[in-house]
Amino acid sequence: MSKWLLLPFLPLLFSCQNKAKIEAADAEPYFPIKSYIESQIAHVDTSLYNIRRIETINNHSDTTIIKREDFKAQAKDFLEIPDISKNKWKDDYTETKIYDEVLQSAVITYTPKEEDAEVRRQEVIIKPNANEGDQVRTIFIDRSFEDGSSSVQQKMLWEVNKWFRIVTITQKPNQPEQIKTVQVIWTEGPSAE
To answer: Is Signal a UniProt keyword of this protein (predicted)?
Structure first.
């Protein structure tokens, strides 16, 4: 008899399970910024680009040619960021998607729910293109962390297929802040080897 009493509730039970599956499928993953940058590094690593590094420390600049096999080491700060697209970090960030009329691009922004997060902001700018597919144009990362007794803030900008820039502001106790800018540019032409 008790089996027959539960029979009317079976459709409700199954519909709840299906709804949970649909909601889980609808949850879009975050844009994989770190993986995208890794693919850019792999592309440059197998190219014949001329690669230049311009380093500026407190208004003094120096330009050097970078060998292709050293490119990944130049981009290491991008590779050291926490990958917030992983499930481990997903609940710690809020995703915002807007279309910017001025840029004629979609902007995806990730901001932390906690103020002390290492990654303070990530932005991806994507140019829509119905014919050729959407194209990632720019990636911006704002990062803050402690390094020993120093407080470090980094503003990192990656212009897809062109260059990247890392501005590092280091503050040591009882000392003026030090500002270091590194820009690495890759262009077509014979390799710098």
So the answer is: yes
pLDDT-derived band at 90 (thresholds 50, 70, 90) equals confident
- What is the 3 state secondary structure string of 43-102? HHHCCCCEEEEEEEECCEEEEEECCHHHHHHHCHHHHCCCCCCCHHHHCCEEEEEEEECC
Q: Name the region of 18 (left: φ>0; alpha: ψ -120 to 50; beta: rest).
A: alpha
Output the pTM of the full model.
Answer: 0.80
pLDDT of residue 19: 40
Domain map of the chain by residue range?
A: 30-187
Pick from 162, 156, 145, 142: nearest CA to 47: 162
